[in-house]
Design goal:
Layout (H helix, E strand, L loop, with lengths): L1 H37 L7 E10 L2 H13 L3 E6 L7 E10 L2 H17 L3 E6 L6
Antiparallel strand pairs: 1-3, 1-4, 2-3
Helix pairs in contact: 1-3
């Protein structure tokens, strides 16, 4: 019984940690949208949104660029500086900004970056870029 209780405890802790990590990403998107609204951005106006990724090499970057461009994103990439390895990928698209939309992009892009061995670094916009 002690072993079963220990296993249940480990599973419970893992579930709590997973929810906490997921909520942290969601909270970041919500904060970004809240800051954008506080600066006077209109919820009905499409803005140029910039998304950032780090990828391990040129082939993975090329594959990811192809996927993003087929979804209507404009992309550009450049090698990292001498202190960091990999390729920095920037994608942009005009979108209306809402918390649920941006959380959806975060989840989608985290999975996409992981598929290519990379990392999703987040998004930003400037309310003047309509």
């Amino acid at each position: 019984m002690l072993v079963v209780a220990a296993v249940l405890l480990v599973v419970r802790v893992a579930m709590i940690l997973r929810r906490t990590r997921s909520a942290a990403g969601d909270d970041w998107d919500a904060r970004q949208v809240k800051e954008l609204r506080a600066s006077g951005a209109n919820a009905f106006t499409p803005y140029e949104i910039d998304f950032f990724f780090t990828l391990p090499d040129e082939p993975s970057c090329t594959s990811m660029r192809t996927r993003l461009e087929s979804d209507g994103f404009t992309t550009d990439a450049r090698g990292m500086n001498e202190h960091a390895e990999g390729i920095s990928l920037h994608a942009s698209k005009r979108l209306r900004v809402s918390v649920s939309e941006m959380q959806g992009f975060t989840q989608r892009f985290q999975a996409l970056a992981a598929e290519f061995g990379g990392h999703y670094d987040g998004w930003t916009t400037n309310k003047s870029r309509t």
